[in-house]
Amino acid sequence: MYDVNTIRADFPILSREVNGKPLVYLDNGASAQKPQVVIDAITRGYAEEYANVHRGLHYLSNISTERYEAVRGIIARFIGAGSENEIILNSGTTEGINMVSYAWAAPRMEAGDEIVLSVMEHHANIVPWHFLRERQGVSLKWVDVDATGALDADKVIAAIGPKTKLIAITQLSNVLGTHVDVKRICDAARAKGVAVLVDGSQGAVHAPVNVAEMGCDFYAITGHKLYGPSGSGAIYVKKERMDEMRPFMGGGDMIRDVSKEVITYNTGPMKFEAGTPGIVQTIGLGAALEYLMELGMDNVAAHEAELAKYAREKLTGLNWLGLQGTTPDKAAIFSFTMEGAAHAHDISTILDKKGVAVRAGHHCAQPLMQHMGVNATCRASFGLYNTKDEVDVLVDALELAHNLLG
């Protein structure tokens, strides 16, 4: 049974007050809070077991290496990868997508080749492709969302042309909460010989993921949104694609031998993991994913679906609030504006006085903001520990903001 109050007790920070009010943390889309098991794993990693990995034969190095390398298999289980050798460990989604841009896309794309994107991509899934546009003349092909914020998979598929080499698409919008039918896109792209990179930064947080069934070539996750440490993450790379990739960064474990005249590279995934990694951060990510799997991502999804339904009912009842994205099956992520001249930053500041933490700004999604005709929104993004009572606190705080700013 999913007992949210028991779960909340696993997160120490949720018992604190902010501005004399109980904390209502609704900024999970930016970064989630950490359960005690993750905090304990980090503390133990530094206080009892720390040493550099792979390079030593002494006890501490061996245990650090064992704990660190075990996370590869944990991630593979969490996202349904066929092998842990398809998991490249890194600092998060941004590094993962940049790696694909430099290591896979750059060597095989030339002027006029196309990358298909949706207008609601996070900047981390836009800027690396602009690098290729600037440096190699690659063309970026954009697919818009409709008035409800939905992205029609058939429109993404229709955008595939003879020069399309890659589709880079989010699984779940960090602004609108829109789910994308990435499996349908992957199936169609594979039939046309086009690779697909899926940004799973939000998707992996809110529902079960199985990359083998999805059929994507690349799938990126970031640890700090998955209730793990910042500076942790991974990217799944299908073996055939990994074999096509050139090294991204040089040094450390990505080599077998180095001489004055020649370098022999390691095999993947180590070939793409240069330098001393975020050892303890990655161990903490493993603890977070094991925690999530113990809860059951189906259970997390069901809890958040109930929250989303309740929050939608409450927020749509505020006729002076403009909700961005109204797709029926959206995740528990709500971006909004307020009638009049109220700025998102002012709204957020007033909410903070009531202990409610939300995000305000363009959410690293400026093309989407331009498409929606707004400069900024407030965003309340819910997680596995949030409650309907917290939705009520949010609504009360919004009413106060409206009274003060309206």
Automatic annotation (TrEMBL):
UniProt keyword annotations, A-Z: Pyridoxal phosphate, Transferase
Molecular-function GO terms, alphabetical: cysteine desulfurase activity; pyridoxal phosphate binding
Domain Aminotransferase class V: 24-394
GO biological process, one term: cysteine metabolic process
InterPro entries: Aminotrans_V_dom, Aminotrans_V_PyrdxlP_BS, Cys_dSase_SufS, PyrdxlP-dep_Trfase, PyrdxlP-dep_Trfase_major, PyrdxlP-dep_Trfase_small
Needed cofactors: pyridoxal 5'-phosphate
Enzyme class: transferase
A Pfam family reported for this protein in Swiss-Prot or TrEMBL: Aminotran_5
The EC number(s) this enzyme carries: 2.8.1.7
Catalytic function, reaction form: (sulfur carrier)-H + L-cysteine = (sulfur carrier)-SH + L-alanine
Family: Belongs to the class-V pyridoxal-phosphate-dependent aminotransferase family. Csd subfamily.
Function noted in UniProt: Catalyzes the removal of elemental sulfur and selenium atoms from L-cysteine, L-cystine, L-selenocysteine, and L-selenocystine to produce L-alanine.
Protein name listed in UniProt: Cysteine desulfurase
